[in-house]
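Action item from last meeting closed. Structure (292 res):
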């Protein structure tokens, strides 16, 4: 009687199959090592970019959870075109020493590999994790400087108005709030830009996970802007209120930072409630369709 003999796996064949993947990974790291290294450095050391340490693993988990579409198919030409653009952008941004566009080229390269292997349908399928990765890129210093000053003025105006409402003598001079015997300077760190960036990412994450309607997702993300401005104005008000009625030392140190974290949690809860209400509206609108 003939017996089947199991053939041992050929290590050389397995290596030949994995060689293109290994070569592609090594080439990608060689091309984009600098933007990857500087991005990780900023995530770890820059308080304005620290949310990237949370967004990156969350994006990886969401991409793994969504998986690969059953109808995904490779698009080599489109992938090579995007990859070529990413490499050119990487080269030009390296010459100009411009970190933001250099990091954009990194994620363009990631998108190019996705399109090359799985096609554009998979790129759309992974829109949420990819959007979170884009939001993890720190904004350029020019953009931060342009946005921070108007936000400082708005926070100062709102905080001063609340102080006047609580009968606190106040004189507003730009982003400086004059109190009797004390002046509060609303700095760039207190502009609310940091909390706005983090809330935009949270709004996108909550909307992408809880909501189905693109319009409601956009609405929730847009809601993060007034919420961030409102919360930061309340923070300025509370700082001035405690300085005037309790102790001027409460304008700095542990109490000041604790106050900022507490108000950020409050803003997160406001977004959660807004997402819950929008989800309820979605479910009510879907009920008649299910019965039809």
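Sequence:
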């Amino acid at each position: 009687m003939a017996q089947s003999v199991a053939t041992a796996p050929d290590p050389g064949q397995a290596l030949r199959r994995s060689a293109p993947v290994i070569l592609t990974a090594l080439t990608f790291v060689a091309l984009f090592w600098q933007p990857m290294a500087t991005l990780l450095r900023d995530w770890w050391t820059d308080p304005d970019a620290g949310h990237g340490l949370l967004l990156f693993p969350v994006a990886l988990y969401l991409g793994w959870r969504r998986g690969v579409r059953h109808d995904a198919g490779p698009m080599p030409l489109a992938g090579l075109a995007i990859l070529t653009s990413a490499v050119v952008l990487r080269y030009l941004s390296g010459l100009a020493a411009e970190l933001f566009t250099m990091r954009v080229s990194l994620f363009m390269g990631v998108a190019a590999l996705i399109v090359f292997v799985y096609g554009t349908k998979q790129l759309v399928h992974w829109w949420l994790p990819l959007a979170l990765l884009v939001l993890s890129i720190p904004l350029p210093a020019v953009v931060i400087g342009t946005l921070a000053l108007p936000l400082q003025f708005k926070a100062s105006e709102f905080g001063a108005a609340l102080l006047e409402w609580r009968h606190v003598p106040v004189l507003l001079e730009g982003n400086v709030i004059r109190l009797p015997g004390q002046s509060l300077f609303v700095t760039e760190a207190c502009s609310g830009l940091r909390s706005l960036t983090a809330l935009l990412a949270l709004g996108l994450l909550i909307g992408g996970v809880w909501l189905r309607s693109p319009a409601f997702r956009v609405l929730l993300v847009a809601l993060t802007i007034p919420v961030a401005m409102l919360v930061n104005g309340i923070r300025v008000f509370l700082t001035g209120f405690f300085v005037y009625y309790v102790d001027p030392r409460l304008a700095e140190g542990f109490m000041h930072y604790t106050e900022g974290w507490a108000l950020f949690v409050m803003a997160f809860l406001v977004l959660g409630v807004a997402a819950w209400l929008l989800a309820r509206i979605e479910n009510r609108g879907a009920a008649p369709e299910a019965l039809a």
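Note appended to the action item: The first strand starts at residue 171 and ends at 173.
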